[in-house]
Design a protein that fits this description.
single chain; 8 helices; 328 residues; 15 strands; alpha+beta; 4-stranded parallel beta sheet; globular; Tumour Suppressor Smad4; Rossmann fold
Length: 328
């Protein structure tokens, strides 16, 4: 089995962890390894890995690196029909995808285990097929002609603003604080939700006007505090804010503005176990669907990467592609 490692040197790792990883890879010449500091270099890196017929692509980075690589592989067909297995390490500022796969806390230990399993022919024990979100966006009804991103999580409203606020609060000096990433996002999101519980709808908590269609059926045309979709089982801080039914691969949840007694409903909603009265009729919608259409002017996030507001933007969410992820 051919293993390739993409090392994102800007993914929040300290110098010591970078040095340990690079030293380890230097001693394992059978593993292809490339260091990169920019997304612009990714197409060339992946094309070389495809030429080298890499079977298992290990990502030494965070959610943003995974999102970039998924978009290149699935959107640009760098590997053609032979999509490699993907193993995310917990090596970024945010690691929702790696954590959802139960990756080892120490990226180096995770990589060592992968190499041992490959040598022993035991990689299959760690494989988990997962659907990947396709987020196409632009103007007009023809989704095939729009730009597209691939990832595991889409969010608009509070989640998107929490990420932006987290960047502003914890990166003012250009240095990454220890509370950035998952801890920082958790703190900021908790603070915003706390303000929302008190009835504060001002500033970053101002709702967005969004038109939602789920499998072609209109849900509502109104204002929303939060719209999100994912193929993950859980988000950061162990949140599982999806409780809908249905066979579709896109797990979708929205919180309308206003929604009934959010203070009482919040904990249950975040755990995916809302109170029986938290229904679509009072602002709480969660369903598993095949296709989501959003017509909105506000910005959004895909796996922590940010897209800013655009007038009359239309977004389509699907999850038809399946990638074989590997627990590192």
């Amino acid at each position: 089995m051919r293993i390739g490692v993409v090392n994102n040197l800007r993914a929040g790792k300290n110098e010591e962890s970078v040095a340990r990883m690079l030293s380890f890879l230097k001693d394992h010449s059978e593993v292809l390894s490339v260091e990169t500091e920019s997304a612009e270099a990714m197409p060339e890196v992946l094309s070389e890995f495809a030429r080298q017929e890499v079977d298992l692509l290990v990502i030494n980075g965070g959610d943003g690196t995974i999102q970039n690589i998924l978009t290149e592989i699935l959107g640009n067909d760098d590997f053609g029909d032979r999509v490699p297995m993907i193993a995310p390490l917990r090596a970024g500022r945010t690691n929702m995808s790696a954590m959802d796969l139960a990756a080892h806390r120490d990226p180096l230990s995770g990589l060592e285990q992968l190499i041992d399993c490959a040598k022993d022919g035991r990689i299959a024990e760690r494989v988990e097929p997962r659907r990947v979100l396709r987020v196409s966006y632009g103007h007009g009804p023809h989704t095939s002609q729009r730009a597209a991103q691939y990832g595991m999580f889409f969010g608009a409203g509070i989640i998107k603003r929490a990420i932006e606020l987290n960047h502003r609060l914890f990166d003012k000096t250009g240095k990454r604080a220890f509370v950035e990433g998952v801890p920082g996002a958790t703190l900021v999101t908790a603070g915003l939700i706390g303000r929302l519980v008190t009835g504060d709808h001002s500033g970053v908590l101002a709702p967005d006007k969004i038109e939602i269609l789920l499998d072609g059926q209109p849900v509502d045309t109104g204002e929303f505090h939060l719209v999100m979709a994912s193929t993950l089982s859980r988000l950061f801080a162990r949140m599982r804010p999806f409780w809908g039914q249905g066979p579709g691969g896109v797990r979708f949840t929205s919180l309308a503005a206003p929604c009934k007694q959010f203070g009482k409903a919040a904990i249950g909603v975040l755990r995916g176990k809302p109170a029986s009265w938290a229904t679509p009729e009072v602002g709480y919608t969660s369903r598993n669907v095949g296709h989501v259409e959003l017509r909105m002017k506000c910005g959004f996030t895909v796996d922590g990467e940010l897209w800013q507001p655009d007038s009359e933007r239309s977004i389509a969410l699907t999850a038809e592609r399946v990638v074989h992820f590997v627990r590192a």
